[in-house]
Amino acid sequence: TAKKYLELLAMQGLVQREFMLHKPGKPTRYTLRTEEIIISLDLAYMAKSLQLDLPIDNPMIRERANLEPDVKYQLTEGGLVNALIIRKRTKARRYVSRTIELSEMEQRFYQHVPHPTMAYEFFLKICHKVGISDYFDLKQLLVFVQKLQRLNIVNFILEIEKKER
């Protein structure tokens, strides 16, 4: 990993290590002795990527707003979307793919999403059309929609009126 290589460079005297506490969120700093170039390791991101079983060597997997994902669909026999396969192009011009499996309720909901940008009232209309009225199901669908929003697939415009007192 990058940390091992930096430690080897520090032992050879090519890189100077600043002694900091090894806490998640506090990057360890290594500086080159010749010029002021700082390489920092984010231990918190490494720990998070270990929990999610993501490769540490590829930090481009982090969801960024400037990388537009390509969505490819897998269809089931009934014509509903079974899973979303999202491909993102990284700055290194490589593709990172990720699969999101959809539950039956999410499949029915996703079938009725006509346009990537919609208002919040339209979300409730889709839920009514699909036949979802239970509070728990609505809450689950909102979590699903937030996931789609983070991945730039669907952009819901939430218009909440402020009540004047």
Account of the protein in words:
The protein is of the alpha+beta class and 165 residues long. The protein has two domains: 2-57, no CATH class; 70-157, no CATH class. It is 33% helix and 25% strand. The chain has helices at 2-12, 43-51, 104-111, 120-130, 135-150, and strands spanning 15-18, 28-32, 38-41, 70-75, 81-89, 95-101, 117-119, 155-157. 7% of the residues are buried.
Compact summary:
The protein has 165 residues and is an alpha+beta fold.
* Count of helix runs: 5
Number of domains: 2
What's the N-to-C terminus distance? 58 Å
Number of strands: 8
Helix content: 25-40%
Low-confidence stretches: 35-42, 48-67, 158-165
Q: Tell the overall outline.
A: elongated
User: Reading side by side through the largest sheet, how are the strands ordered?
Assistant: 1-2-3
Task: Describe the main β-sheet briefly.
Answer: 3 strands, antiparallel
Q: C-alpha Rg, in Å?
A: 22 Å
- Provide the β-strand percentage band: 15-25%
Average pLDDT rating = 62
Structural class: alpha+beta
The ordered string of helix (H) and strand (E) elements is HEEEHEEEHEHHE
Secondary structure elements and pairings:
Elements: H1 2-12, E1 15-18, E2 28-32, E3 38-41, H2 43-51, E4 70-75, E5 81-89, E6 95-101, H3 104-111, E7 117-119, H4 120-130, H5 135-150, E8 155-157
Parallel strand pairs: 7-8
Antiparallel strand pairs: 1-2, 2-3, 4-5, 5-6
